[in-house]
Amino acid sequence: MEPTDPLYLHPAESTHPLVVDIKLSGIENYLELKRQMEIAICSKKKLGFLTGVVKRPTDDPLRADAWDTCNSLIISWIFYNVEKSIKNFVLYTKTAKEIWDYLQKHFSVSNGARKFRLNKELEDLEQDEKSICEYFTELRILWQNLEIMTDWPPVTKVTPEINSWLDAQLKEQEERKLFQFLNGLNSSYATMRANVLMMIIYQL
After folding, report:
1. Alpha helix ranges (H) inside the chain
2. How is the chain split into domains, by residue range?
3. Contacts 24+ apart (CB under 8 A), 37-46
4. Which residues pair with 82 in a beta bridge?
5. CB of 18 within 8 A of CB of 77?
6. Tens of pLDDT along 109-168?
7. What are all long-range contacts of 4-12, with beta carbons under 8 Å and residues at least 24 apart?
8. How far apart (Å, rounded) are the C-alpha atoms in residues 48 and 26?
9. What is the CA 119 to chain-centroid distance, rounded?
10. Backbone angles phi, psi at 21, to 5 degrees
11. Residue 24: strand, helix, or coil
12. Residue 33, number of CB atoms within 10 A of its CB
């Protein structure tokens, strides 16, 4: 198989466990574990097994066997990064996607409350005695935490219309972040803020 094929396995992948910085212990660290695992599994070109995009072939026994091998390996990666008490609940689950969906269902139940808290922190955050760099860093942390909690559906086919929608969505997100940043600046930056806003208005 070609290395770009999601069913391709490098020899080292089957002999070394995929390890991230934390083990899932519950709601309190689920989002961090989820983000780290998705990045690590994506780097192996196997994220489609978690999202369900890479489905088990039904017309090719050899590729079906390769899919089973990859699926079992990803399950072992998940098991390695969760506490034993959690692993026991999904030990006999057959696919990596089913396990991933189970973890999502049982450990992201507090997303609504956490999103509310993060958005409230964003609304209240101001520069005050912080430097511009310190203030922007706090904003970035809040933005990243909110982005981690947002589950976008996988895009399996890219069309010009989807590309246009994604570009517009990205532009709207960046503008919202810029406005949040400007709104929290100290009054000493009022002139700069006004100039930036005028530049945005002229571009619209």
Report:
1. 27-43, 47-51, 61-80, 84-90, 96-107, 111-124, 132-148, 160-183, 190-203
2. 11-107, 111-203
3. 37/77, 37/78, 37/81, 40/77, 41/74, 41/77, 44/13, 44/18, 45/4, 45/6, 45/8, 46/6, 46/70, 46/74
4. 24
5. yes
6. 566 777 888 889 999 999 999 999 999 999 998 888 788 777 677 777 778 888 898 889
7. 4/45, 6/45, 6/46, 6/48, 6/49, 6/54, 6/70, 7/54, 7/63, 7/66, 7/67, 7/70, 8/45, 9/66, 9/69, 9/70, 9/73
8. 24
9. 18
10. -70, -25
11. strand
12. 20
Q: Write out the two tokens for 128.
A: 């005050």
Q: How many CB atoms lie within 10 A of CB 66?
A: 19
The residue assigned the tokens 């002999």 is 15
> What tokens appear for 157 in the block?
């086919």
pTM for this structure? 0.61
Residues counted in the chain: 204
Question: Hey, what are 50's tokens?
Answer: 């978690």
Q: At what angle do helices 61-80 and 27-43 cross, to 10 degrees?
A: 140
Cα separation, 37 vs 33, whole angstroms: 6
